[in-house]
């Protein structure tokens, strides 16, 4: 029960401090890896949620919730992730015209964005480093993936291929 | 009258189920949603406004956009219909995959699978981070964006807890961007 409450508060916090689904990865990493899930579980969660159709952020949240506390954990993570945007939208539909002039809200989010980008870079480096594949094989997969994504190859295809290549290279 | 409402909700639910099964991620759903919603449920201007709001408010943007469209179509019940359509596909899929994957967790090949996936996931995060950074500096990268980025980097480097850094960045945004003339 305590674990479920912890999950709930965690995802509430992450969803209040990030502006979009993908941006929550950085913050989530710092909040859960080591304490709630292992590095390997986190990588699997990010990889799978970008491969499966549907919102990445929700899938990521559910996978982590599930890894921590089974199906109830997954559902609690889901609930905590949808609560902040739902409350905000319901609030906004009532005060839509007033909040438009509340410039500070959008300024806050604008200030948040560069910080989130930097956080994500740090996270990317940590995931790479702790993934265990920092020899030429890891760098090769990483660089080829990066080039592929910059050339607009669908991200889920890149992740799946990288994982399959990994099975052959590392096993 | 009630049957008409039910029809609206059913169509709304179906639309969001479709959008969420066909799109790989939140931001990718915007294009699909545009085609489904504009002209039928809301005007182009309303849609643009909804996208703008979704980007500006905290929380998953895809969900907020879905709820805006739902509201335009069917008021508050429309919001919940949209929400249901948006969360059902990822929930079902994730729970199935998580259950299957747990069974394989101790197989040998999972190790290679994860080791291969890590660099690709890192690359994915770099790409998203770059897109986010570019989107945040509207026309050109101005000094304020760089200042916030550098300060955050220093903060993370010295292992200041990340929520603290993010809160600080947001407050800095209020101060720095607040001087814009309105």
Number of helices of chain B: 7
Largest sheet of chain A: none
- As a whole number of angstroms, the C-alpha radius of gyration of chain B is 21 Å
Low-confidence stretches of chain B: none
Secondary-structure blueprint of this entry?
The complex is a heterodimer of chains A (171) and B (182).
Chain A: H1 2-16, H2 24-32, H3 39-51, H4 56-99, H5 103-130, H6 136-150, H7 155-170
Helix pairs in contact in A: 1-2, 1-4, 2-5, 3-4, 3-7, 6-7
Chain B: H1 2-22, H2 29-37, H3 44-56, H4 61-104, H5 108-136, H6 143-157, H7 162-177
Short description:
The complex is a heterodimer of chains A (171) and B (182). Chain A has 171 residues and is mostly helical.
Characterization of the model:
The complex is a heterodimer of chains A (171) and B (182). Chain A has seven helices and no strands. Chain A has helices spanning 2-16, 24-32, 39-51, 56-99, 103-130, 136-150, 155-170. The model of chain A has no long low-confidence stretch (mean pLDDT 81). Chain B has a domain at 1-105. Helices cover 81% and strands 0% of the residues of chain B. Chain B has helices at 2-22, 29-37, 44-56, 61-104, 108-136, 143-157, 162-177. At the A-B interface, helix 1, helix 2, helix 3, helix 4 and helix 5 of A face helix 1, helix 3, helix 4, helix 5 and helix 6 of B.
